Every structure is written in structure tokens, then in C-alpha cells.
Structure to design on (227 residues):
């Protein structure tokens, strides 16, 4: 059973989300604040995914996302924003969220996004064999680790899957839409810009000079190429 952390301070919304998760065969772990969410994550069984409202009392959803990512690269994270502003979405993705959804949202869209996110996480943590090498980089599929010149680099599961796609297509220009479908799935509801945000995040982690990348190259008007 998928275990979903729901962090929402409005009880009526939290109850509605939790009820629908349970109706769809998921376990809902409820928290009315970021502080309570961190307590539950520390004391309970691991969660497959987390749904984080931005506007929370005390610590906000962005800070909570950062705190969760410091401890867990595997959990799927969806940021919930009432504002629907582009900078909110980009900020959430930049600090480690895998997806975002804007209030008001339909239950069917939320469940579809959570299902897709959990499938990605489960696929990413499934047992694999062997490892892939490209120059000074090594991607080990059995341990789900990534390193540069022998030094480990922490990647989220989404970032790891993007790197898998690159390593399987070295020197090939990949359309943004192909990366989106390959990592987020055929039925993803969101914007292709989520690819660009994750690429920027990856460059910050693996490039010596992120502003002048040597490995993840932009193919203008098309997508990206791994060099």
C-alpha cells in the first residue's frame, strides 16, 4: 500500500484529501504543520510520497521540502500552491520537489499525479543490475548512486532517472517532450518547463561551472544533449 504524507493546515481540505487517498487504496499520514510532518517522518515508517502545502503556520512548505530532501532523496514530493504563480512552481522544483499542483485541483488529477509519482519512485528503487559509465561519471543502477571522479553526488530519484536517460543516449539530442515522457510518464499533466528546472538543478550538482556547462548541453529550440 502506498503511504502518502499529507501536510495541510486546513482540516477540511486535509480530511478531503486523506479520505480520497484511502478510497483509492492509499494510506494517508496527516500533519497540520511542517513541524508535525517532520516528527511523523522521523518516528514512523517511510512514506512513498509527500503532498506539501506552501502556506503553513510556522515553517512553510518550501522549507519543509528542503528539510525532507536533506534526509531522503527517494521520497516523491509534490508542492501544493494556492497562488499558481510561475515563481512558486520554479522555486519548489528548484529545491527538490518532483512535481507541483495548483489549488483548486480535482481529486482525479491529484490521484493521477500521486500514482505516477509513486510508480517512478517504485521503479527507481526496484532492483537493477550493472552500472553505466560516461567519462568521469559512474551511474550505478544496483545501488542507485551517482559519482564524479569517485566522489558521490546526491541525486533525487527524478534526477537519477534523467541521468539514466542521458547515459543511455550519449551524444543524442533529446527533445524536452521525450525527457518528460521518459521520466514523468506518458500521461503527465504538468508543464514541460519541469524538465528545464531539473536540468538547472542537475547542472548545479555535476558541472564545474553550471553557467558554462560541458556535459549537459542545451540544444536550442529542441532540448538537451549529454556530452
Amino acid at each position: 500500500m502506498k503511504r502518502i504524507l499529507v501536510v495541510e493546515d486546513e482540516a477540511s481540505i486535509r480530511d478531503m484529501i486523506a479520505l480520497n487517498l484511502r478510497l483509492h487504496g492509499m494510506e494517508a499520514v496527516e500533519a497540520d504543520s511542517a513541524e508535525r510532518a517532520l516528527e511523523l517522518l522521523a518516528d514512523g515508517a517511510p512514506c512513498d510520497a509527500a503532498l506539501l502545502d506552501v502556506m503553513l503556520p510556522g515553517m512553510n512548505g518550501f522549507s519543509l521540502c528542503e528539510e525532507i530532501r536533506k534526509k531522503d532523496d527517494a521520497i516523491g514530493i509534490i508542492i501544493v500552491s494556492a497562488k499558481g504563480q510561475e515563481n512558486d512552481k520554479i522555486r519548489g522544483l528548484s529545491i527538490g520537489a518532483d512535481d507541483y499542483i495548483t489549488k483548486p485541483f480535482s481529486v482525479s488529477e491529484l490521484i493521477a499525479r500521486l500514482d505516477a509519482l509513486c510508480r517512478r519512485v517504485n521503479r527507481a528503487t526496484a532492483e537493477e543490475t550493472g552500472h553505466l559509465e560516461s567519462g568521469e561519471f559512474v551511474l550505478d543502477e544496483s545501488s542507485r548512486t551517482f559519482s564524479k571522479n569517485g566522489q558521490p553526488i546526491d541525486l533525487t530519484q527524478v534526477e537519477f532517472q534523467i541521468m539514466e536517460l542521458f547515459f543511455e543516449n550519449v551524444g543524442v539530442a533529446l527533445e524536452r517532450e521525450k525527457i518528460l515522457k521518459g521520466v514523468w510518464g506518458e500521461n503527465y499533466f504538468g508543464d514541460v518547463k519541469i524538465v528545464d528546472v531539473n536540468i538547472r538543478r542537475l547542472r548545479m550538482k555535476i558541472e564545474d561551472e553550471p553557467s558554462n556547462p560541458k556535459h549537459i548541453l542545451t540544444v536550442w529550440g529542441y532540448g538537451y544533449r549529454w556530452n
